[in-house]
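hiii, so i know i said id send this last week but things got crazy w the move. better late than never?? heres the sequnce for the chain we talked about at the cafe, plus the structure i predicted for it. fair warning i was half asleep when i ran it
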Amino acid sequence: MTSKSFFYRKLYGPVAGLFLFVILLSGACTRTVYVPVLQPAPVDVGSHIQTLAVVDRTTPEDGEERTVESVITGSNPNLNREAAQRSIEGLVRALEGSSRYGVVRTAERLTTPASRGNWPPPMTWEEIESFTKKYNVDAVLVLESFRSEFILTDGGTSAPAPGSGEILGRRFRAGGVAGIKLGFRLYDPEFRSISDEYMFDHRSRVQAEGNAIQMVVGGVLDHRQAVNEASFQTGRIYADRITPQWLRLNREFFTKGRGNRDFKIGVRRATVNDWDGAREAWHESVNSRRRKVAGRSAYNLALMYEIAGDIELAREWAQYSYTDYRIRKARSYVSNLDRRIRAQRIAEQQLRQD
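okay and structure toks below
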């Protein structure tokens, strides 16, 4: 391991055992392995921001205007307040599940000028700094705007079952769409800048079926539940915007090595996820006099070092496989590793604590 092993243990340790497994492709000269890769967040939040206070600023100052708006749009102010909290819950859970941030969910419910789904004026830096001191955090993430609605889209009935009665035996179907529009701002008091400002729409389609009694007593569709579940997802969607994410990449290793004993041993060890053992065996077969065996061994070693978290050494072996032995697959592998090196540097910077 190189000096980068710190980041491998921090980033890969919890997930490596979950994703590193082999898919057998019978009759092929390669096998596929999934490698966990940490992708940078779409928004590069400064590494000086390690802790966040989450604040709800969606209570309108003008209650009368809000009431008029609810009549025009079909939104429900009480459900909006509940759904906004569900959005914050989804956000906090997602952030807590990452290693990027420490999160404080505040009980603050701030008022804001009624904006009809648009951005309200930003908070003042005096307000933001008071929150950072109160909750001992680096930055403040504010839910600035929130609207929810539920629209019935379709419905129908099915023929009653024989002998069940015309009404009680009939099944009622209904469909609807829960719509959420919300906006978050991330305030960075150190530089007195808004690190991110993002408003987006999210829609979730639901369908349900019930009999006449269910229709009368509870309704076929639970619109409150649909709106709350869609709201929870919006929080997770935004969390993905500012948090590095794990992805799985497909990689292949060669399985045929012209009868070379060490090469075969490496293949068997890799098949049972013994990566260290496979690397040891392929370090022997890379010295083979057969150029194809040596080239494929070098290629396989590149994969072993990528799995171990040493991406730069993996690139060296992949380049060696292509330049010295003309293994064509190694050329594209070098390009893939170049992209990984750039992405990993950004992701590590996003996770590095000062």
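btw The first helix runs from residue 5 to 19. thought thatd interest u
miss u guys!!
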